[in-house]
Amino acid sequence: MKKEIGLLSLAFWIAGLCFSQTKTDASWSISSFPNGIIRITWQYKDMPRSEKISNAVILKSDPLVSSMVKGENLVLKTKGIVIEPFNENKGIRLVSDDKSLSFVNGFDMGDLRGILIEMPENVDWYGGGERALPLIRNGQRIPLNNGPAYGYGEGQDQLNYSIPFIFSTAGFGLFFDNPSKGYLDFGKNRPGILEAAFASGVPDMYIIPGKNPEEILGKYAQLTGRQPLPPRWALGNFVSRFGYQSQQQAESVVQKMKADGFPMDAIIMDLFWFGETIQYTLGNLDWNRKKWPEPKKMIKDFQKDHIQTILITEPFILENTLQYKASQPYLAKDSTGKPFVLTDFYFGKGGIIDLFQKTARDWFWQFYRKQNKIGVAGWWGDLGEPENHPEGVMHNLKDFGSKRMMSANEVHNMYGHVWSQMVYENWKKEQPNKRLFFLNRAGYAGSQRFSIFPWTGDVGRGWSGLSAQIPLLQSMSMSGIPYIHSDAGGFAMTDTADAELYTRWLQFAAYTPVFRPHGSALDSLTPAGTISLPSEPTFWDPKTKNLALKTIKERYRLLPYNYSLAWEQTNFGKPLIRPMIYAFPELEEAAEATKQYMWGPSLLVAPITERGAKMKRLYLPPGIWFRYNDLSYESGDQWIEEATKEDQIPVFVKGGSFIPYWDTKSMQSTHDYSWDDTLTIRYFPGNSDKTFYVYDDDGVTPDAEKKKDKHQLMVWKSTIRENNFTLNCTMQNWPAGMKRILKIQVPINGMELGLGRRTSSIAFYLNGQKVTPIKITELQKEDNWWEIYCEANGKPIELKMKK
């Protein structure tokens, strides 16, 4: 089967088509959406538990444009597409030319219902959310059941985020819009058959055509939404641990980080802000004034240093906490209508807030509002799978159109999604001039619309835990959740301080959406047999501290590049982490190169995930690839063995790329980044037909990308003709009167490579005028860069380099 499926690219002007199912009286209905997306539903009369509660899809369907004829032997032809009965009228087949997609049957076994689909031969499948499994799903059976796994490593098949969106190399994606517990089986149970099954709801599926993963994910983002731009500080360094136990401790950690020269943008308070113990305190929802006597002053003092404060909350209210009595009307119920009491829960006995009820959401939000008023800048939602959610817990979904109470299994995967929506909508209403940062652990398809920044849960503090993050972050990125990241350094308790592991994890995290070292460091509360191991780099030995400082500063230097990636995600639905199969789908080697990824369009990142590794095997696609840290280069279309270095992981820049770079000596937080600064644009020579975007705004204003006077957008392209380079920049929606100094840098060795002659023979022309570039040395080598200054004022820029 070819990578492109022609039958899916013809828009499917079909609606309401049904085939009678003789044994179950079931029918298939098909409706069309823009961009060729179609929805297929299998249902029968009086199907129990068939309520539609998901709000994942925001794209509107097309109007009916074709009349239909019904009957068991119907064959419908339209625009080269044939839709016909299949499998003795139990299924349907979509056919065009020599390509087909067959839906074998729908099924309902009482506790599970779903769809069976033929898996085309020689086709790989990807997606499905958060899994520490090989990226290719063929032969796997993955649960759709959000759930934590403490201390996990490689091979963990069930984690906190289940997204029932998958795609294939045959040119289409499938989104099963059903948030109940279920599974996806990629031929493990029945060879050659893809099974999608759910505990409740209607088997409801969207077919998303596309010639490659980028097009499919772009259409999926149109279907379920794209993430708003983050506050710029979300791309900085976070100070975080489990957990700061007092105001004095939090303030002292920040002071020590400052004294050691670490840039930082936020501090995160774990559950000790409202209780002195780990257990029995969920539900206090206010400061423990014994340990935190002046939280308002503390937050204001942090703000003076441009450090934002983030607080944790959980949806559980335990007995004997401050809010337990008041929470009773808002808790989920048992079968008798009384608040369900969790008796087998690590944190203590109590209930869970029924966030599906508007009254419960409003009650919960009041505690957020109170802290927002004293300066809290972001929130952390923990345990939102929910971590403890027995089947007997009943939820009231009348606000979603349900006339009956629904069990935990029916709504489980949507709980965190509704929580994120609650925080986002209230924040937007009450703080309309500030972007939201919501760190969460669980959700559903479409949760990205609510400004979420999910992390990968309580990963083990070991090499297996680090290695597990590479496929996991790539899978989530291909599942439409762009800001996935991990607890850098690992989370779970340990008996060993492994400086090499910590260093390699931070070096990897520098090229992920959120840089947040975080782990268990409980001081006097540390269990026997483990150690209190701080996550902040300032507490490590001098060598490890210096390596971490270099990594963090490089993270900040890439701020304009990373922020532009965020803009691309918001506008086009592109992931920040781009697996090789996403970036280079035409290459067979891309499916094998899963221990590396593209960070945006330009940087190839190959994390070190083995102790003492001396070499890293990686694949360079066709073209020229520059080593990011020393500007030497390799020809692509080959696997290489790259020697490892202590102070960096292998990172290559694709020839033909533009990298915007924050070149500054003052770097305490992202607040120091300013439109008044000179912006460095680094060009790495090579053939490329790509367009590179450099986006900027104030880092605060919501929807700034839609407001002409609130942002800048530069569009860069390069051409090589007869060994001459031309760099072109156009400016779109440029604010009137805005001027900005650009420093364009080109590696001297790269110029020799591209032009095939000595650098002394190269002439530079800026907008038609000959200019003399400056030679600069930066990397302990002679003459690293040619450097040319110019002004960005809204007019086109052209830089030619020729003999």
Can you offer a commentary on this structure?
By secondary structure, the chain is an alpha+beta fold. A hairpin with a 2-residue loop joins strand 3 and strand 4. Helix 9 runs parallel beside helix 10. The longest helix is centred in the middle third of the chain and has 16 residues. The radius of gyration is 27 Å and the shape is globular. The relative contact order is 0.09.
Sum up the structure in keywords.
803 residues; alpha+beta; eight-stranded antiparallel sheet; six-stranded antiparallel sheet; 14 helices; 18% helix; disordered N terminus
DSSP summary: helix tally: 14
End-to-end Cα distance, whole Å, is: 49 Å
How are the strands of the largest sheet arranged? Answer: 3-4-5-6-7-13-12-9
Count of strand segments: 42
**Structural class designation:** alpha+beta
Indicate the low-confidence ranges by residue numbers.
1-23, 64-73
Form type: globular
Strand fraction band? 25-35%
- Specify Rg, calculated over alpha carbons: 27 Å
Helix proportion range: 10-25%
Biggest sheet details: 8 strands, antiparallel
Give the overall pLDDT as a whole number. Answer: 91
Chain oligomer state: single chain
